């Protein structure tokens, strides 16, 4: 936060320069689109005053200052132990910075908890399974849809259902050839717990992705992966968990895709070819050039 610190510590300038400084600190989201002339007009000064102010801070001129100022706003994240919460006076700049920080911290904390040996074991089980079934409720269901879509591109058959009865029936039809992935923030969803019990009886291996390492679901699972959702994120709790789970799903999918890379690349090239010809349409006399 070098530039912000420089601005806050700038106290010995002229009255015009202090006005420019205060405007920048109070309206940071406006600076990106403002020229020196426009900033001068907004502060009842001039483009020349803006240029002198920037040079006093050690920059060649306003364009260099503006570029570095906006870069710092977008990519600087502050203290890692700082609470992140929404307030009534949010602007575009603070929202961008907070969301960037949320995803960065969530992924870093999730990454730190990952065991390479555990990932190797889990991805081997997924690769050996004929079908991967996802189980989740509410907003987490959209993560299962994402996971299914990714695995299709790695030639892996997947299932996910939003209705409780469909998830239960799918579990009853499962066996040791299936692999189940549960997504639950608390790991204590009663419906998921009952479905996990069914899968245990069906001898289906279970992976739980959760923010609660000591939950009922993790006790029932063969393995679990920790998805970070720090309480310091306040209102951003679910976005943090969502980012963490997506990060884990991307890792699992990436390993699966690489195991049979050439075959998967071939499938996706054929998919692109179909899309260019008649996406979602009736295909006639198209040489797909792909066999299983």
The whole-number mean of residue pLDDT values reads: 87
CATH architecture designation of the largest domain? 3-Layer(aba) Sandwich
Portion in strands: 5-15%
| Radius of gyration from CA coordinates | 26 Å
CATH structural fold name of the largest domain:
Rossmann fold
CATH superfamily label of the largest domain: Glucose-6-phosphate isomerase like protein, domain 1
Mind telling me the CATH class of the largest domain?
Alpha Beta
Order of helices and strands: HHHHHHHEHEHEHEHEHH
State the helical fraction. 55-70%
Strand count: 5
The largest pleated sheet is described as: 5 strands, parallel
Helix/sheet category = alpha/beta
Number of discrete domains: 2
- Form type: elongated
**Ends apart, CA distance between termini:** 54 Å
Low-confidence stretches: 77-81
Description:
A five-stranded parallel β-sheet has the order 2-1-3-4-5, sandwiched between helices. Helix 8 links the parallel strand 1 and strand 2. The chain folds into two domains: 74 residues, Winged helix-like DNA-binding domain superfamily/Winged helix DNA-binding domain (Arc Repressor Mutant, subunit A, Orthogonal Bundle); 153 residues, 3-Layer(aba) Sandwich (Rossmann fold). It has 292 residues and is α/β, with parallel strands linked by helices. The longest helix is centred in the C-terminal third of the chain and has 23 residues.
